[in-house]
Amino acid sequence: MNQETIKIIKSTVPVLQERGEEITSVFYKLMFGNHPELLNIFNHANQKQGRQQKALAGSVYAAAANIDNLETILPVVKAIAHKHRSLGIKPEQYPIVGKHLLLAIKEVLGDAATDEIMKAWEEAYGIIADVFISVEQEMYQEAETANGGWKDFRNFVIDKKVEESKVITSFYLRPEDGKQISSFQPGQYISIKMDDIEGQKNSHIRQYSLSDSPDKSVYRISVKKEAGFEDRPDGVVSSYLHDHVNEGDVVKISAPAGDFVLNTNHDLPIVLISGGVGLTPMISMLNHLVEKEPTRPVYFVHAAINSEYHAFRNHVQQLAAKHDQVKSLVCYQSPTEQDKQSSEFEKEGFIEMEWLKSILPSHEADFYFCGPVPFMKVIYKGLKDWGVNAEDIHYEFFGPKDEIEE
Description:
The protein is α/β, with parallel strands linked by helices. The chain has helices spanning 3-11, 13-34, 44-49, 51-65, 74-87, 94-109, 115-145, 236-244, 279-292, 313-322, 337-342, 353-359, 373-386, and strands spanning 153-163, 168-175, 189-194, 204-209, 219-224, 250-254, 270-275, 298-304, 326-332, 347-348, 366-370, 393-396. It has three domains: 3-145, Globins (Globin-like, Orthogonal Bundle); 153-254, Translation factors (Elongation Factor Tu (Ef-tu), domain 3, Beta Barrel), CATH 2.40.30; 270-396, Nucleotide-binding domain of ferredoxin-NADP reductase (FNR) module (Rossmann fold). It has 13 helices and twelve strands. The strands form two sheets. A six-stranded antiparallel sheet has the order 4-3-6-1-2-5, sandwiched between helices. Strands 10-9-8-7-11-12 form a six-stranded parallel sheet, sandwiched between helices. The two termini are 34 Å apart. FAD binds at residues 189, 206-209, 397-400. This is Flavohemoprotein.
């Protein structure tokens, strides 16, 4: 890319920061209007809540701000590429995205979007798209050629369905063809594709963390039934899985993906912090650590409304009782009377940094956390203020990437 193009792209950074979400909202409206088939890929709920628009705006802004050194945003590119590979995004869809992104920029900026600016953005988008396509092609190849791997979506049978709490149910997934399944790294997820949900004209794809350690003969996902409130409807896929999918039914899933994974290159203690259904990737990590790294200290800190909403409580308690490396700590927002009598939790209310500091021996640890976005922002800020090294802070958003810092 020549210096003049870079200069022009850089000059648009302020307006992208100011009007990015407006541009991406117009982009999705135009693209889905002209290509409704893409509604079979994108999460409709994230569209309605504005999360997808916000995430895309952030990505476009980051690309523009770093257009002269795209390597700096390679970690962001790889995280998005994992999502794209899991969803089945193809190279031929990138020109469609590019066309409608340029149309949206032109519509929102009007006369300010000069021919010079539009030409520069067309060139820049082509380069950025080529980076994504290249990274994703490597991921597709890796997923397909892995032992037990496969291309796109594969049929799995619901081998077992187990209620874990008042709102979370586990689904054990066995390959319909009886062949080997690929391994994965603790913390990764699969996409599940539902084509025939009654009353829905589009397919729906959702990504769920794998909630057990790797190298089993089945996969396990543990799904929260997303209840609607105010203007937000019930979760389409989570409700269908809970209410209509039973043992023996067949579902389609993609091979494991994701970059929220355990760092096994050092021996720092591990702190796993979760809120609600955010514990699912943490259970995978915990099970792996107990099986493969039995000398590494693990602090499993979980927040739930109360015991009725606390999935895998007995499992974690049993691991902590059996393995000296595991210390389990529980925080209940609104404990029941029975909870209070049993004293099977350490704190009432919310996880707070002063409490975390009192129960952890040091800030020198590898921290992983997942849960509701407000919960994650509090944990992130607290860890940063405590002086935890940036490279030892790891987190996962369920859904489009959000801003972790206020």
